[in-house]
Write a structure and sequence with these properties.
globular; 7 helices; 168 residues
């Protein structure tokens, strides 16, 4: 019943990847489904909660894929993405490094777990403001405020990381 919606989310996420990405939307959905199925008696509160968990799993799959690619290329650049879930970048080099984003989200989670979860739901899950509000149990206005704050923090962190990288 949810396969088509998961495929739509996967296509949206993969649209932001580099043009020659080897992971297809069906493979991303299948891997996410396998991970969902391995969970012991999941307690989905509602549809938005299910898609929130699926978004988290897709994030982990894409980050693992990017890390494996980096390891295979011995440090080559990771896929570039934008922090705007509604907008696919014109070119993959206009966005941010997926591995750096995952690392920054880990640091954000230590400071504010709700903001990190919000970014994960909006960016990786493609959930709307209203859907994110339902999953997190907060108002849409709070989601909007936290979204602006979390994106600003992430941009600053990612910019800081870029400056730390040694010149090639």
């Amino acid at each position: 019943m949810v396969y088509d919606e998961l495929r739509r989310l996967a296509r949206r996420r993969l649209r932001n990847e580099r043009p020659d990405h080897t992971l297809q939307s069906a493979a991303l959905v299948n891997e996410a489904y396998l991970r969902l199925a391995r969970q012991n008696t999941p307690q989905w509160q509602n549809r938005a909660h299910f898609f929130g968990v699926a978004a988290q799993l897709m994030r982990h799959i894409l980050v693992d894929h990017a890390r494996n690619r980096l390891a295979a290329k011995r440090g080559a650049g990771a896929p570039r993405l934008t922090l705007e879930p509604e907008l696919a970048p014109a070119a993959h080099d206009s966005g941010i490094d997926l591995v750096a984003l995952d690392d920054a989200l880990g640091r954000l989670a230590a400071l504010d777990a709700q903001q990190a979860r919000l970014i994960e739901l909006r960016f990786f899950g493609g959930l709307s403001i209203d859907e994110t509000a339902v999953v997190l149990g907060i108002s849409p206005a709070t989601v909007k405020r936290e979204w602006v704050t979390a994106r600003a923090w992430l941009r600053r962190e990612l910019k800081r990381e870029t400056k730390k990288e040694p010149a090639k």
